[in-house]
Amino acid sequence: ILPECQNLLFDYEQLEQLIQAQKQHYRGTLKISMPSRIVHQVIIPELPDFYSRYPDIHLQLHSSDDITDLIEKGIDCVVRVGQLDNSSLIAKFVGNLIMVNCASADYLEQYGIPEQLEDLSQHKLINYAGAVGEKQGVFLYQDGAVMMDSALSVNNTEAYIAAAIAGLGIIQLPYYDVQDKIEQGTLVEVLSTYTAQSLPLNILYPNRSYIPKRLEIFMEWARDVLYKKCIVIF
Fold it and tell me: Which of 37, 59, 66, 123 is deepest in the core (most CB within 10 A)?
């Protein structure tokens, strides 16, 4: 065998040994919380790759759009969209989510297609409410905010998208959430010439003196997956 081939074979054997050592060494349970759409659309389809590398790490995925008290509920890390308001957590910044406005074709046929922000006053907004009783919604753009009254408020992304598909109004949300719906024609993007304000995507974990290696491994893996599949910018 040529020396170059022997070196390549040696390098391959070393890499294989390293992979096997990692599989054997990293084990235990991780409790992870993240928005339901990210669980369904992004993380679960990629989990076969994770388990092929780390078969002894057991994941407990909690699908939630709510901000969770990590320490109280024993959560190891969370994936969150939006501005951070808890300084006690350490954040790993993934990127900024590209946002889009969209509505169903039936809605646009009935109410017309908005061409500029001023046209929104003649349209219906589906409000993604952060609190019970919140009725007025807002669409955020680089040029400013547009406040709109809403006849419907929801606090769940699945319901938010379903309401738009049912023709109840316009929604504004991360592109990855509705990419498949737009490509299928179920929803139609509007006001594409107006740049919606992007939302930060972060992985958060408690400030502790010791971070288990399995948690570091999962967060780095999740960060790569989220960056590639969530259509983010910096």
Answer: 37
pLDDT confidence of residue 132: 45
- Looking from the CA of 30 toward its CB, the CA atoms found within 13 Å total 26
With respect to CATH, is domain 27-96+199-233 assigned 3.40.50.1970? Answer: no
Contact 206, 71 (CB under 8 A): yes
Q: What is the pLDDT of residues 185-200, one digit of tens each?
A: 999 999 999 988 889 9
138-165: b (≥16 Cβ within 10 Å) or e: ebebeeeebebebebbbebbeebbebbb
If you search the block for the tokens 């993604």, which residue do you land on?
128
CATH 3.40.190.10 is right for the domain spanning 99-190: yes
